[in-house]
Amino acid sequence: MTVRESESAGSGTALAADEVELRLEEHRAELTGYCYRMLGSVFEAEDAVQETLVRAWRSHSGFEGRSSFRSWLYRIATNVCLDSLNAGKRRARPMDLSPASHADATLPAASPESVWVEPVPDVRALPSSGDPADVVVSRETIKLAFVAALQHLPARQRAVLILREVLAWKASETAELLGTSVASVNSALQRARATLSDAGVSTSGADHAKAVAAAPMDEAQEKLLARYVDAFERYDLDSLTALLHEDVTLSMPPYALWLQGHQDIRDWFLGTGIECKGSRLVPVAANGSPGFAQYRSNGEGGGHHAWALQVLEITDGRITGINAFLDTAHLFPLFGLPLELPG
Fold first, then answer.
1. Nearest Cα residue to 287 out of 21, 44, 42, 52
2. b/e for 3-18, b at 16 or more Cβ within 10 A?
3. What is the DSSP letter of 92?
4. 117: DSSP letter
5. What are phi and psi of 238, to 5 degrees?
6. Structural contact between residues 92 and 41, judged by C-beta atoms closer than 8 angstroms
7. What DSSP character marks residue 106?
8. CA-closest candidate to residue 150, choices 11, 264, 40
9. What is the pTM of this model?
10. Is 288 left (phi over 0), alpha (psi -120 to 50) or beta?
11. How far apart are CA 266 and CA 30, in angstroms?
């Protein structure tokens, strides 16, 4: 939805309105990435960005140019996100909430969608162009593990860390945006880094990413993903297990249950998850990571139906995480995916 569709009333000439709307829309993707990191939900992030652009549309005539247009938009977006987070809600992954279960565990009742960190399509939250190093930083800091770790931070610390570590804003710029002092910003950043360190997440990933050039998926990873698709679609669990790290995790939001390790994941696919046999996988790009839309077989009737949006985590040539999001009614349309595949 465009800004004008949300806010049909405007001031100024039609040409001026068109120019303002175009300028606002140019920032939609990067603002969506920012709000997604803040909120952990692609749907809430898109709502926050729409509210940001509508507020900017309404008040653009009062923009005095004391800061850049982009900084002004980020100030509005930050306030929208902080207002949303004032209720103290925090999204999580199943691994944040309970110990790992075993393959013979009973599947619990589904939790509300508001509990979980959601996947986001790359195309909605990542820049399509720009400095290669900045593109790498954006991809690394939108991965599920990083976004989930951000949810451990109080809202203002979260904003400080994203602005300073991800977007590379100066302390003085961040302080001006938040209406606070440089000392306060530096203190908040130190506390945020310590919290993420305790959670096992390093903020040095952004610095490392700046040192390398953005590159297409390397040949080794392409082969790994091709082998994963082949093994999953043939339901060859020996071949599939060979691709997984020994500490691999399998999670299935909206269920809190999650599994860890070769044996439990293998037993799950041969037990409760046996209906995954005969699935088809369609590649998607989510959270700066490779992923697949999984369609389960309809059986003798032919065709396949949407079952899960898988986001994979890969480290050192092995799959370390399979995040299977089961809310296909909302997620598949978001990713431009059909809910049914014909036979």
1. 42
2. bbeebeebeeeeeebe
3. B
4. P
5. -65, -50
6. no
7. P
8. 40
9. 0.90
10. left
11. 39
| Cα distances (Å, whole numbers) of residue 340 to 254, 296, 297 | 21, 9, 10
At 120, list the tokens: 């986001």
H or E stretch including 286? strand 280-286
Per this entry, what is the length of the chain? 343
Q: Say what angle helices 69-85 and 42-59 make with each other, to 10 degrees.
A: 130
Sign of the four-CA dihedral 217, 223, 228, 233? positive
State how far the Cα of 182 lies from the Cα of 300, in Å rounded to an integer. 65
Tokens 């820049």, residue located? 127
Write down the residue that tokens 């790498």 correspond to. 136
Residue identified by tokens 């060859």 is: 236
Residues with Cβ within 8 Å of 179's Cβ and at least 6 positions away in sequence, in order, are: none
Torsion of CA 127, 130, 132, 136, to 10 degrees: -20
For the packed helices 42-59 and 28-39, what is the interaxial angle rounded to 10 degrees? 130
- Tens digits of per-residue pLDDT, 159-216? 999 999 999 999 999 999 999 999 999 999 999 999 988 877 766 544 444 434 334 4
CA separation (Å) from 185 to 72, 193, 297?
18, 12, 53
- As to burial, measured by CB atoms within 10 angstroms (0-12 exposed, 13-18 middle, 19+ buried), residue 338 is middle
C-alpha to C-alpha distance for 202 and 196, rounded to whole angstroms:
7
Residues 6+ apart with CB under 8 A from 178: 78, 156, 159, 160, 185
pLDDT digits (tens, 9 = 90+) for 47-102: 999 999 999 888 776 665 556 888 999 999 999 999 999 876 789 999 999 999 99
Residue with tokens 């931070």: 153
Task: Write the burial class of residue 171 (CB in 10 Å: 0-12 exposed, 13-18 middle, 19+ buried).
Answer: middle
DSSP element (H, E) containing 104: none
Please check whether residue 119 is in contact with residue 106, taking contact to mean a CB–CB distance below 8 angstroms. Answer: no
